[in-house]
Specification:
The structure holds 2 protein chains of 2 kinds. Chain A is α/β, with parallel strands linked by helices. Chain A has helices spanning 46-67, 87-104, 113-124, 161-171, 179-186, 207-218, 228-254, 269-281, 291-294, 298-312, and strands spanning 7-13, 17-24, 29-36, 75-83, 108-112, 131-135, 140-146, 149-155, 199-200, 203-204, 258-262, 285-288. Classes of the chains: A alpha/beta, B alpha+beta.
């Protein structure tokens, strides 16, 4: 590996994934290593996630460096996720990044996790100015670039889509992560049970849908008139139709000609099919971010850090706060102007 | 539909419906056709299209009583989810806004505020107030279209959500003009609403902030 000061180490630590990515300033990826916390039961408890990350960060970073075939001394920039996410977990990422920055005497930069999802999509799919549907366990956002920011056109008003699917799966006795299991179950059914369909302008609400689905599996009729596959099918059809509708609204409103689907739930084939359909209708190019880069990972943090570093330079360690509640539309993105 | 009715050309592919220009017994009309959306399953699709077509047509007829300019409805075809309505010649506010001067922008948003206040006072929620759904005609009239998400409600919450959506659209689409336009809108809205129910109006506007703070990733100190 030549030209030492051109390599960036990206650290992702917002939720259950501790991710490390090694890449250069041109966007060539040398390694991507994720260490994902999986709860034995229940959901993600911040304290347990934090402990997991603390216990495993060293080995994950070492793995990433050896896979990239470089030494820690080759690194010229540290990027870490500073927002949004679980406070305790964000702290771990920030702690490691500050430490490395000070030991190695290299610049450090904090990155918004949501913007990183869009930026890695733009890089990997070679797309210029997309409307993005970002669906994951923590976020459900329809966003596009407008007046120097990634504006939020639509978002969930309560639960995020992944959170809703996981919670429902948990109630139905499926282990975490529930999304893929629901997708599989849904394929076995085509019996639709009516569920609340809540779209407010371009915003969505999933909490009513979640409660209704939960009541379906707690009802006496459950197992007699319908089974879990039917409920899974109905949940999926309803919530994805809602997502697709608001995305189509945003596509018609913004008149963008490119569409990007990203986040963990983007892996769902049914959702991909639905979004692809509306893109054809509106003559928009449709891209799904490759699975490896769609979920949380360190490469996206690294790449966004590079973009910001190139336009604004690094931060002082004393400026690197974590901002667990920061919205992506509060941040300007100077590299897009 | 018989030979006096002609769908001539498509003028807009919206998110929900296709709009066709045409003639209906010698009148210039728009056919708003909620086409089947193949991405969703048939049961869901049918219900959504049916409910919204009826809902919109009813709303278009009823809100006329409150002084709102909306297209006249000529025919409703619930089977195919088509509404035939008067053709309104003009420009979408979204496209027109840039070229207007500031005082004109303020004037328009004040007027919009009054209109929406009138709707709300009478228990109507538009459900999708965006600058794409407001038309400015040549003789400077303001027309409201797209009542597909219209609802009847007297609750403060629903009215606030309606205003919140407009606020969001203004921020995301007209960032530069947001402050001025939304302020003017609220002035118009308050003027009209306070004539009848000052306290309720105050609560509706206050509640917009409450809704915002319910959003995702709001700073602790901004939460109520």
């Amino acid at each position: 590996m030549e030209s030492n000061k051109k390599i960036c180490l990206g650290i992702e630590s917002t939720a259950h994934t501790f991710g490390v990515g090694v890449l250069d300033f041109e966007g060539n990826v040398y390694s991507l290593v994720n260490d994902i916390f999986t709860p034995k039961e229940g959901g993600l408890h911040p304290v347990l996630v934090k402990e997991h990350h603390l216990n495993n960060f060293m080995i994950t970073i070492k793995n990433a460096l050896s896979k990239a075939n470089c030494s820690i001394k080759d690194i010229g920039l540290i990027a870490f996720s500073d927002s949004p996410g679980l406070g305790q977990v964000l702290k771990i990422g920030a702690l490691i990044a500050r430490m490395l920055s000070q030991i190695l005497k290299i610049p450090i930069i904090g990155v918004n996790h949501c913007i990183a999802h869009i930026e890695i999509g733009r890089l990997m799919c070679n797309i210029e100015d997309p409307l993005t549907l970002y669906v994951s366990g923590g976020n459900t956002i329809v966003s596009a670039f407008e007046s120097a920011r990634y504006q939020i056109f639509g978002e969930t008003l309560d639960l995020s889509i992944g959170n809703m699917l996981d919670s429902f799966a948990r109630d139905a006795g499926l282990a975490h992560p529930g999304g893929p299991k629901i997708e599989k179950l849904a394929q076995e059914s085509n019996k639709y049970l009516e569920l609340p369909y809540v779209v407010k302008g371009m915003d969505l609400s999933f909490s009513g849908l979640y409660t209704a689905a939960k009541r379906l599996i707690e009802s006496e009729q459950y197992g007699k008139n319908y089974n879990l596959s039917d409920v899974a099918y109905s949940v999926q059809e309803t919530c994805f139709a809602m997502l697709t509708e608001v995305t189509e609204r945003a596509l018609a409103h913004t008149e963008k000609k490119e569409m990007l689907l990203t986040g963990g739930v983007a892996a769902n084939k049914r959702l991909q099919k639905m979004i692809e359909y509306i893109c054809k209708e509106h003559n928009a190019r449709f891209e799904v971010v490759p699975f490896k880069y769609a979920g949380d990972n360190g490469v996206m943090i690294g790449w966004t850090g590079i973009l910001r570093y190139k336009t604004e330079g690094g931060q002082n360690v004393s400026e690197t706060f974590i901002k667990p509640k920061e919205r992506m539309d509060q941040i300007t993105v100077p590299w897009r102007d | 539909m018989d030979s006096n009715v002609m769908k001539e050309k498509i003028i807009r592919k919206g998110a929900e419906a296709n709009l066709y220009y045409g003639h209906w017994f010698e009148k210039l009309v728009i056919f708003k056709h909620r086409i089947p959306k193949k991405y969703r399953i048939e049961e869901l699709d049918k219900t959504i299209r049916n409910v919204r077509t009826l809902n919109e047509a009813r709303a278009l007829i009823r809100v006329k009583n409150y002084g709102l300019n909306v297209p006249q409805v000529y025919e409703i075809d619930t089977k195919n989810s088509i509404i035939v309505m008067k053709y309104i010649e003009g420009e979408k506010l979204k496209d027109a806004l840039e070229s207007l001067d500031n005082s004109r922008k303020e004037e328009i948003f004040k007027k919009i505020g009054r209109y929406i206040a009138n709707l709300h006072m009478n228990g109507h929620i538009h459900g999708d107030i965006t600058t794409s759904n407001i038309i400015l005609t040549k003789n400077q009239k303001i027309f409201f279209i797209d009542f597909g998400l219209h609802e009847y409600s007297d609750s403060i919450e629903d009215k606030s959500v309606d205003l919140h959506l407009l606020k969001r659209i203004l921020i995301s689409t007209h960032g530069k003009d947001f402050n001025m336009c939304f302020k003017a809108f609220l002035i118009g809205y308050q003027e009209e609403y306070c004539k009848e129910a000052r306290e309720e109006c105050r609560q509706i506007i206050k509640n917009i902030n409450v809704i915002e703070t319910r959003g995702r990733y709001v700073k602790k100190e901004e939460r109520l």
